[in-house]
Amino acid sequence: MGDEHLMQTYGRLPIAFVRGEGVWLWDTEGRQYLDAISGVAVCNLGHAHPALAQAICDQAKCLLHTSNLYRIPLQEQLGERLCQISGMERAFFCNSGAEANEAAIKLARRHAHQQGIDTPYIMVMDGAFHGRTLATLTATGNRKIQIGFEPLVAGFVRAPYGDAAAARAIADQRPGIIAILVEPIQGEAGVKIPPTGYLQELRALCDEKGWLLMLDEVQTGMGRSGSWMAYQQENILPDVVTLAKALGNGVPIGACLARGAAAQALIPGSHGSTFGGNLLACRAALSVIDTLTKEHLPERAKIAGDLLQIALERELAGLSIVQEIRHRGLLVGIELNQPCPTLAKLALDEGILINITSERVIRLLPPLIISDDQIQTLATGVRRAINRFMQTLSE
């Protein structure tokens, strides 16, 4: 069996997995790997977590889907839990991060039209990644993934990431801006962490201008950054928050949360989703929240992230190819001084799964349940993989 019947949209590594448990995955040949990418920040609880597995099994035996033509009590429960966690007031459920960001974009535009602004603009950032639908692709600050999909969607203005002064200057020059859409940490761009106070300054700017502050927490949310939401470390409240990835720990679900006027913008008939917030997805997400809470995993992510940073600094000391190691919780970027496209494949030989983003950044996103011993195993594996890569450069 091959992939000749699949559209060739992915550059897949030559490996397939058949079983997982905790931080570990096993391939078709029975070889074991430490999963340090978690399905790209999805499996915060690791693989085959018994509480989640039981919740999914119980719900599958009961009822999977009825559609949003009817009340869904599990969806109502999940909305309440997420609003308690985030400080928001209302939730819209969908199936992915891109859909959650689409909902935020539509919400902002509708909010603008309700104020009589016929041609609204949303400020987005260089290096951003918000999804691959046409609107989120346009909002994304990566020209490479936009090529061939023109014409792009109008209504966006771009600013440098991490530069609040530049955002303010653009605000003074461009009329019609009604919202800022920004990631608290840019994951796809290479784990770029903005200066302390950046989100606070954007919050102040939005307050002054009457704009919505919309935070894309698809990768950083649900404990990954060391708190439930990354913005909570800056002591601010946005107007809109988007979530997905770890919300279902592998069961597809996304959410657009909002408060204040933003929470009132969408009305019956203005937006919707066939599968969004169905019983199975909501039961899974509620189990994820229960487990993250019971096992104190957002707090654990902060401690584990600090331990991983220390272990990596120790293991990678003296390697001239390593330019910088940065992290927030268990979102880690190791920037090399040159592109390293083969490194993820070389890491397979060391029994670890890693991801290369922005051409030369090793991105680590291990499950939040990772133990201290597993952290050391990961750091050692990364060093060995980098050494293998450096050997290929001299051949």
Distance N to C terminus: 35 Å
- Contiguous runs where pLDDT drops below 50 for at least 5 residues: none
Strand content: 15-25%
Strand order of the largest sheet: 4-10-9-8-7-5-6
Briefly note the CATH topology name of one domain: Aspartate Aminotransferase, domain 2
Question: Total number of helical segments?
Answer: 12
Q: What is the correct CATH architecture of one domain?
A: 3-Layer(aba) Sandwich
What would you note in describing this structure?
The protein has helices at residues 38-41, 50-62, 73-86, 97-114, 134-139, 143-146, 164-173, 198-209, 279-294, 297-316, 343-348, 372-394; strands at residues 17-21, 24-27, 32-35, 90-94, 121-125, 156-159, 177-182, 212-216, 240-243, 254-258, 322-328, 331-336, 352-353, 355-357, 361-364. α3 runs parallel beside α9 and α7 runs parallel beside α8. The chain is globular, with a radius of gyration of 21 Å. It has a 7-stranded mixed sheet with strand order 4-10-9-8-7-5-6, sandwiched between helices. A 4-stranded mixed sheet has the order 1-2-3-13. Strands 11-12-15-14 form a 4-stranded antiparallel sheet, covered by helices on one side. The mean pLDDT is 97. With 395 residues, it is α/β, with parallel strands linked by helices. It has 12 helices and 15 strands.
Structure summary:
With 395 residues, the chain is an alpha/beta fold. The protein is 37% helix and 17% strand.
